[in-house]
Amino acid sequence: SSSLPSPTLKLTGHKGSVYAVQYSPNGDTLCSSSFDMTCLLWSHRDDDEEVASYSNFNVLTGHKNAVLDCSWCDNESIATASADKTVMLWDANTGNRLRKYAEHTGIVNAVTSTKDTSILSVSDDKSCKVWDRRQKRPTVSLEMSYPLLAVAQSDEHVYVSGIDPKIYAWDLRRPSHPVYSMAGHSDAVTCLSLHPEQTHILSNSMDQTLKTWDIRPFVASQSKR
C-alpha cells in the first residue's frame, strides 16, 4: 500500500546533525536542514519509476551557520532559518538564493510560510518577524519578553512560543499585544504544528510532553482551551 521501495529508508549525505525535514506541498520533494550549514533536496519519485527512489538532486548552500528549520512556501520555493541570524528564500529547482532577510539580531530558530506571500520567523532576539517574499524588510515585528523557538499560523492568528512555555496567539491586524495565551507546559516549547483543518495546535516541549490545544473560535472560555 506504500509508494516506498521498502518500509524503512536511510537517506545519507549530511555531514552534521539534521534539525528539520519537510515535504513540499505536492509531496514530490523532501527537504532536510542540517548543522553542516546546508539543505539537501530529495526527489520522492523519478518520472519513469512507479515507486519512490529518493535521489538527492540539489544542495542549498549559503548559510554561514547551522540551518535550524525549513518550510516550503510552494512547490517551487523554500524558506530556511539559521543560527547565522538570517532567513533565506530559495528556488528549489535551481538551488539559487532568491532573498536574504537579515533583520534578526539573534539565532533564528524556526520559520513557517503562509498561503499568501508571507514568511514568519522567530528568534532568540525575542521577536517574531513577518516577511513579504517580495520585500527585504519585515512588514510586522511581534515583540516578546523571552527568546522564541516555535511558530505556526492559521487564517486567524499567529502562534508563538519558546522559553516562556505559554503559547501566545497574535492577530496581525492588531500587533501591539497578544490576543490570548495558552498555559500548560512547564518548560520551553520547541515546536508548534497546525492541524490541517486549523482546529488544533500541537506543541512539543522540553517538559517531555506533547499537548494539543483547541484553537477553534467558538470555545466558550479561553481557560478551556
Structure write-up:
- Strands 1-2-3-4 form a four-stranded antiparallel beta sheet, with no helix packed on it.
- By secondary structure, it is mainly beta.
- Helix content is 0%, strand content 49%.
- It contains no helices and 19 strands.
- β14 (158-162) and β15 (167-170) form a beta hairpin.
Q: Can you summarize this structure?
A:
The chain is an all-beta fold and 225 residues long.
Number of helices: 0
User: In percent terms, what proportion of residues is strand?
Assistant: over 45%
Helix content: under 10%
Could you give the order of strands across the largest sheet?
A: 1-2-3-4
Name the overall outline: globular
The main sheet comes to:
4 strands, antiparallel
* Total strand segments: 19
Q: What's the end-to-end separation, in Å?
A: 37 Å
Order of helices and strands: EEEEEEEEEEEEEEEEEEE
Provide mean pLDDT, rounded. Answer: 90
Radius of gyration: 18 Å
Question: Regions with pLDDT < 50 over 5+ consecutive residues?
Answer: none
The SS-based structural class is: mainly beta
